[in-house]
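User: Can you predict the 3D structure for this chain?
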Amino acid sequence: MKRQGLAFYIPSAHQPNWFPEAGKTHPNQFWWDGAVTVSRIHRAKGNEAERVCVVGFDQVAQDESSITLRSQLFVALTRAKGWACLSGIEGASPLYEEMQQVLTSGDTFTFTFKGGENDLLTFVDPLAVSQV
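Assistant: Here is the predicted structure, written as structure tokens:
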């Protein structure tokens, strides 16, 4: 990012383009004006941004039965106020087909997780979660 002239900010660092150092952190700071925030999903919880880029969608697709990865993907996508970008290698996967359905569904969508025989969760829009 630095080579392209973009500043990055790792939440809690003392300034942009630096990694957090012991004793020199701002634990409650998530943003820095003029910098792109780079964060893991657990740190992004509770924060929203105009644009969210999810890196590694292909990794989620490789283990799409993982409720942990799917939940992290759901949280990441719902942090976006305007745009969500997914990055990863495209391939034949039910998760890619599911994401295509989400993209064409408009402003309401359904994520369905099929784990074990009796483990079926349906996520309907970012505000409602129901167990079927």
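Residues 67-77 form the longest helix (11 residues). The first strand starts at residue 7 and ends at 9.
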